[in-house]
TrEMBL record:
Main enzyme class: transferase
UniProt name for this protein: non-specific serine/threonine protein kinase
Compartments in which it is found: Membrane
Domain Wall-associated receptor kinase C-terminal: start-end pairs: 166-237
Keyword vocabulary terms for this entry: Glycoprotein, Signal
Record lineage: Eukaryota, Viridiplantae, Streptophyta, Embryophyta, Tracheophyta
Catalytic activity: L-seryl-[protein] + ATP = O-phospho-L-seryl-[protein] + ADP + H(+); L-threonyl-[protein] + ATP = O-phospho-L-threonyl-[protein] + ADP + H(+)
Pfam families: GUB_WAK_bind (PF13947), WAK_assoc (PF14380)
Superkingdom: Eukaryota
GO cellular component: membrane
Amino acid sequence: MNSSVFSFFSDFVFLLLLFIQIPSSLSNDDLFTACKKEFVCGNISAGFPFWGPGRPSACGNPELELKCENNITTMKSNQVAYRVLEIQHEFKILRIAREDYLAGLCPPQFANSTFNRKVFEPVEGNRNFTFIYGCEDAPTTIPRPISFNCKIKDVDGQSGYIKEGENGPGKLCTGSVFVPVSITDFPPDWNMSSLEEQLKKGFEVRWKFDNECWKCSTSSGVCGFDNVANQSTCYSPGMHSPPEISL
Ligand SMILES: *[C@@H]1O[C@H](CO)[C@@H](O)[C@H](O)[C@H]1NC(C)=O
Ligand SMILES: *[C@@H]1O[C@H](CO)[C@@H](O)[C@H](O)[C@H]1NC(C)=O
Ligand SMILES: *[C@@H]1O[C@H](CO)[C@@H](O)[C@H](O)[C@H]1NC(C)=O
Ligand SMILES: *[C@@H]1O[C@H](CO)[C@@H](O)[C@H](O)[C@H]1NC(C)=O
Ligand SMILES: *[C@@H]1O[C@H](CO)[C@@H](O)[C@H](O)[C@H]1NC(C)=O
Ligand SMILES: *[C@@H]1O[C@H](CO)[C@@H](O)[C@H](O)[C@H]1NC(C)=O
């Protein structure tokens, strides 16, 4: 056989073998090591149930992917982009702010800040607001309506207003966005600019406590997520690992 053909053939077989190796290469032991590492970005660090750069998807809930850019941590929930400002692991609390509202009220990403109840649970300490857009006229009958103007789809001067609570746009307006706001430092006599400041400080959400994971940590394992079974799992240190120092 011609040697270059042979070399091509053996390279091909080698590549094929490499390819076949990939799925089985992440053993329980490797996942234990990988998922022990924390996600770190700027001054945010996170372990289970989060994943992202530095933590493979097998280390966290599929809905809790973190991204890092220029030391800024972001995540998406129900298609809405959030900046992660703080993670309190002991209380399972995330403080997040909507990326679109960091730049002002107009125009937002038209989606409500609602959260998957299977992953998150409600917290006390937020106040709900609805920003209503594209109104023919801001109704005057609502108590304390605060109105503003936005350019939406190149149409200037579209009026909008703010209403407390979780509301829809009503008949006179075209869209609405529901956003919680943290009540910490919230001025009692709020106005447009204080509300815009408060949106930048974000609000809190709490992720659900995972009993399986608690059992796992107490048995010196590391929690992860089995994407096939679609549930959290436990990676234990293998026989070749050095003895575990409990965290
Ligand atoms: C993280 O850093 C940002 C700016 O770099 C700062 O505003 C924020 O207070 C810091 N957060 C914590 C929890 O230290
Ligand atoms: C991120 O923060 C680190 C440490 O605070 C700093 O050394 C680095 O330059 C920052 N990177 C960017 C892109 O801002
Ligand atoms: C705000 O909305 C959330 C989600 O719908 C709800 O659980 C919470 O009770 C509301 N908070 C207030 C103060 O109405
Ligand atoms: C937000 O929720 C309200 C109902 O609470 C709904 O009427 C409105 O259309 C929703 N907005 C978007 C952008 O989905
Ligand atoms: C808005 O409220 C804040 C805090 O209550 C206050 O400092 C500020 O002067 C107010 N701005 C306007 C334009 O009324
Ligand atoms: C995984 O389970 C969650 C609820 O725990 C469910 O909402 C989601 O659709 C499931 N995903 C898949 C791929 O089955």
